[in-house]
Amino acid sequence: xxxxxxxxxxxxxxxxxxxxxxxxxKILNEPLINFFSLFFPPIYLSEIQNITSxxxxxxxxxxxxxxxxxxxxMVELPEWIVYHKIVQTxxxxxxxxxxxxxxxxxxxxxxxxxxxxxxxxxxxxTTGNSYTxxxxxxxxxxxxxxMNIDIGKxxxxxxxxxxxxxxxxxxxxxxxxxxxxLIGRNESNLQDLYSKMNDGASAQLSISTxxxxxxxxxxxxxxxxxxxxxxxxxxxxxxxxxCDVSRPRDVSKAIASSRDxxxxxxxxxxDVPGPVEFNFDFGFPAGxxxxxxxxxxxxxxxxxxxxxxxxxxxxxxxxxxISAIAExxxxxxxxxxSFERPISEEQIKNIRKNANRD
Length: 358
Ligand SMILES: NC(=O)c1ccc[n+]([C@@H]2O[C@H](COP(=O)([O-])OP(=O)(O)OC[C@H]3O[C@@H](n4cnc5c(N)ncnc54)[C@H](OP(=O)(O)O)[C@@H]3O)[C@@H](O)[C@H]2O)c1
Description:
Elements: E1 3-8, H1 13-20, H2 22-27, H3 30-36, E2 43-52, E3 59-66, H4 71-76, H5 79-96, E4 100-103, H6 106-109, H7 115-119, E5 125-126, H8 129-146, E6 155-159, H9 164-173, E7 179-183, H10 187-198, E8 204-208, E9 219-222, E10 241-244, H11 254-258, E11 263-266, E12 269-271, E13 288-290, H12 291-301, H13 316-329, E14 332-333, E15 337-338, E16 341-342, H14 345-354
Helix pairs in contact: 8-9, 8-12, 8-13, 12-13
The structure holds NADP nicotinamide-adenine-dinucleotide phosphate (NAP).
């Protein structure tokens, strides 16, 4: 049977360690988990069963395996140490017999976005970024409709626009919206992106390093590799939609409690085809997965055992192709979730009303 492995790692250290080691999660505080994560070996988590293609009936299996490093450690440690840990985890995937390896969260963010890891392994590697991009745009379009926002007349913003996922999200949005603000930390990287995009874009482009610029945006995709929330209640305007693709999340939880006039949705949440059993609780309802996981599953169903999304430059054609492959096998955008909870049509109606968008 064709198979895959997918690497996850602790993002919210206490909560995530508790899922596998309840006792350690209870007694260790976050700084200690960060410290000890360097000394843990790769960890086998579970076998994933019964992912079944809607169109071909093919069933595949796979494994969740964990790289023990926390997001904070991945950012702080020298790259060679982080690569070494990810490659060690990848070798576990090889021993299990996986045909392809998916890199979750910061294991795909660090350094060159999977290239070094792929070079050191004997199986292909994918970051999942192509399908993450495709589904972030799909979700934003759908949410815009629900909030009565005419996408063709809207102002959109991408936070983390110079990043691997952010850049292509910006390129795709520039074909659809009226104005697009590229937001990042580094002015000269933003200027380079602006110059690259400005020739063909139908939207009017601008750049900013100031998150207060979000006040001008109706539609926002935020996709940075920040370790803590950076988008706060005072940054956004009533009636806007924010799709938070980042893990850890970019959008402050304070928005959930203090702004009943904005729609925040978790980006990249996908319904997986077939009676899938993950056999590990990664915090999602049954049958749902992150888009980056879904890319690995879809490539396995399609028998495309190649390093599909790799490196920091994502090919826009692959974004469209993986979207079609996933659609064919029955992967679909899940119902909206906000801060990890389902959000009902009634709640969206109230948000619309509070923002005078009815
Ligand atoms: N939901 C999913 O299925 C899924 C899938 C894949 C990835 N992700 C998440 O997506 C995020 C981005 O991934 P990526 O591969 O695009 O990473 P990336 O290529 O490293 O890009 C990250 C971007 O974030 C910016 N950034 C970092 N810290 C920042 C801060 N404090 N304030 C503002 N901007 C900041 C970086 O700008 P500088 O150039 O200034 O550093 C860079 O432009 C990560 O959180 C990752 O875990 C989610």
